[in-house]
Amino acid sequence: MNTRPIRFFHRGEVVEVAHLPPTTTVLQYLREHAHCTGTKEGCAEGDCGACTIIQGELDAEGRVALRNVNACTQFLPTLDGRALLTVEDLGSPGALNPAQQALVDCHGSQCGFCTPGFVMSLTACYEQHQAAGTTPTRQQLADALAGNLCRCTGYRPILDAGERMFDGPARRLDRAPMAAALQALAADAPLAYGPTGARFHAPQDLAQLASLREAHPQATLLAGSTDVGLWVNKQFRDLGDIIYTGRVAALREIRAQDGGLWIGAAASLEDSWAALTAAQPRLRELWLRFASPPVRHAGTLGGNIANGSPIGDGTPALIALGADVVLRRGSQQRRLKLQDFYLDYMKKDLQPGEFVEALWVPAPAGDWRLSAHKIAKRHDSDISAVCAVLAVRLDAGVVREARFAFGGMAATSKRAAAAEAAVVGQPWSEATAQAAAAALPQDFKPMTDMRASAGYRLKVAQNLFTKLWLETSGGPPVGIWPSLQEVPA
Description:
21% strand, Ubiquitin-like (UB roll), DNA polymerase, domain 1, 16 helices, single chain, 489 residues
């Protein structure tokens, strides 16, 4: 690929950047080069939301889709071909936008440091609901703001503002200039960027990606940057050459396939969890508590799986659902059960030049009952001490199969084989659930760390079998995968 500048839409025009290092964050660009200082740095790791921006890109129908993301973990080249909106792009001194005006009216700005981030998340929420013709509940507003922290502890007036901004006629952002610019940018050649030294490659189809990965097996594979961004911000690591998956349309597809659900490795966490939850409603709380909306909009389920962290919440859910991981090297595909993908702490069955192409989740067959739980110190936007997704398949009230998957209990996310054996062939009863709990110490010897003690982890995990029994002892089966038309785009 020939090198060219990064090109994106910002402040009403197409901007070109040709001289900054590839790991320059969007936040650094805004504050130090574009002099748009409304966007703040609070944590530099995607936790506090002070740096929230809105990113725009064309969807499959050619419409501009807007989503709020964290600027502190996104590398500037990931903006190529997209639109960037900051608090400076909203309203004007004489005509504030609905979120800004509502925060003024409800006294929601308080000390003001985090306010631009709240404005951007509220604006993204406003745009989403106005497009759908809906008004969010107060709880939906709280969920939408889960990635924005207020150190003044004044969430009530901010939520009041979220409700107030829907009063009066709709005043949505003008997307026409963005659409025109993005359509023109779509004709650009795939990005290969690097003014000096390491290169940032952004292939646009699967064959290009596979070829680059084979040619550069040591390059850093970048998806949502919600973890890799911290390697640079917090660990000051040199990433070398980077291959970005976010421009490969085929990797962002979510579709019904072969009697199950195909989730491309670059599909966002938000879209992936929406598709999973459409068929498995009991995953909904895990979805809403999986990081924050800005992280879920940028991050990918494929990246969460490929990372291999034992506290990645996507893995227990997918293992419990019986998912396969689809791997690719060149034109060759390889599939294996996700539970067999992890060899040891942060070690995967991944060959040089190979990458995760997709996850495939089979449709539930028979009477499967499922329970999902995330245990953490904070309710929102926190790392799990224990994540568990527990599933049993019943036949005439007898457990015929069980998949008990845990994260945070071992060096990898894994199934609890002894606990599963304790219930298979037994009537599904409270006593059977207690037998699974009693067998769990054979499966796990958890560690003590800053998130929880070993004893706490084991006790909590054992208690979850009682919750599994209480949640699944009655009611219908979990259901089947939706049709292709029902899967979120």
